[in-house]
Amino acid sequence: MRAQFVLSEIGVGLRRNLTMTFAVIVSVALSLALFGGALLMREQVSTMKDYWYDKVNVSIFLCNKADAATAAKCAKGAVTGQQKDQIEADLKKMDIVESVQHESADEAFKHYKEQYGDTAIASVVTPDQMQESFRVKLKDPEKYKVVATAFAGRDGVESVQDQRNILQNLFDLMNGMNIAALGVMGLMLIIALMLIVNTVRVSAFSRRRETGIMRLVGASSFYIQMPFIMEAAFAGLLGGGVACVLLLVGRYFLIDHGIALADKMQLVNFIGWDAVLAKLPLVIAIGLLMPAVAAFIALRKYLKV
């Protein structure tokens, strides 16, 4: 009987405040969708870092004849065969080095033409302008500075570059987007909490006669508060459900179909459905608990029981 009464009171409260309940559902859904999207974005960045950092190399570019005339680091002239052999031998002695691959000037020119053959500048570049290099694969990409310190400034070495820096701008951009999403989520969350508090306050005020009678007959505070808390929790649960649908639809259309980023950006290792599904229980739990806690706090102030 008590359960039936609580459920009937929940239905009454939802019908009386239908517009505000709808606003709560929408605001909770948007804030939780942004929250889930931010979590997925952070996981995507982490996945891409693990994937690409394992593939990038440290490049040691060697001086050529053109560099000897223009680059201060190559003032002693182009790299000699003895210097190349010594650099390669020293690299292979290092414990942090997994593999060393030499790229000749002709190979570098061939790769350059493959990438930039249609551009205007590619037509005036000659093989003798290209630099020989050593592509160094590290066991731990974070140890780049060890190689840079050991070989930067050596005779015959023009520069030492970490290819991770090329990707870092992309990761910084994605992290910035993640922070922006979290900021918007925080704003939407504040709006949702304010709506929940106002909805509970209006609902409690509209039923002040019923709650007064319940107090007179000895009903406990928890029993009186329960319908209001359940109303907020139900609205939050619906909002959490809508947020889950938005995350699933977003993953489907952005990556697999519609925009189909997986087809257009095949070099990117996108997160799978398992990552999305793993976030849904957390979104549902927050959608259920957040409004319930907000309602409980609001009732302590606006419902004197």
From TrEMBL:
Gene Ontology CC terms: plasma membrane
Compartment(s) of residence: Cell membrane
Pfam families: FtsX, FtsX_ECD
Record carries keyword Kinase: no
Chain segments annotated as transmembrane: 21-41, 179-200, 232-255, 275-299
Membrane topology: Multi-pass membrane protein
Annotated ranges, domain FtsX extracellular: 56-160
Predominant location: membrane
Family annotation (InterPro entries): ABC3_permease_C, FtsX, FtsX_actino, FtsX_ECD
Organism superkingdom: Bacteria
GO BP terms, alphabetized: cell division
Limits of the ABC3 transporter permease C-terminal domain: 184-304
Keyword Transmembrane helix: yes
Gene3D superfamilies noted in UniProt: 3.30.70.3040
Keywords: Cell cycle, Cell division, Cell membrane, Membrane, Transmembrane, Transmembrane helix
Subunit description: Forms a membrane-associated complex with FtsE.
Similarity comment: family membership: Belongs to the ABC-4 integral membrane protein family. FtsX subfamily.
Protein task: Part of the ABC transporter FtsEX involved in cellular division.
Name listed for the protein in its UniProt record: Cell division protein FtsX
Species assigned in the record: Streptomyces nymphaeiformis
